[in-house]
Design a protein that fits this description.
By secondary structure, this protein is of the alpha+beta class. Helix content is about 40%, strand content about 25%. It has helices at about 5-10, 50-60, 85-105, 105-115; strands at about 15-20, 25-30, 35-40, 45, 65, 75-80. Helix 1 (about 5-10) packs parallel to helix 3. The longest helix is centred in the last third of the chain and has 18 residues, at about 85-105.
């Protein structure tokens, strides 16, 4: 699976910004200055609820607690070891992370961003 497909998916989400984050040598996904993901050749790191994160870790061997992130709120998909999650499943996880972050933005900020 190509990271380009995941980057393009994240870019198409309303008001999202996807850019190279030199400090961590990865792509960063954000909306309104709030991060909803990171992607490099080794990891796709996304936010979700603590309950969902636990279920995902139990269900998929390629999903671990967020690499260099809060282990409760973030998961990382080990991209090179991933044989269980296809593009649709990874896109769904990106969408859930995006929606979670959007839901935490103020009403004013959501209106400004058009989400």
């Amino acid at each position: 699976m190509e990271n380009d497909e995941l980057l393009n998916y994240a870019k198409q989400l309303t008001a999202s910004e996807v850019y190279w984050y030199q400090q961590w040598e990865c792509y960063r996904f954000d909306i309104g200055g709030k991060i909803f993901g990171y992607l490099n050749e080794r990891y796709l790191t996304l936010k979700n609820t603590p309950e969902k994160n636990e279920r995902l870790r139990e269900q998929f061997s390629a999903i671990i607690a967020g690499y260099y992130m809060n282990k409760t709120h973030w998961n990382s998909v080990l991209m090179q070891e991933n044989t269980e999650l296809g593009l649709p499943e990874l896109e769904q996880l990106i969408l859930e992370s995006y929606q979670l972050v959007v839901s935490k933005l103020s009403k004013k900020e959501r209106q400004r961003l058009g989400v």
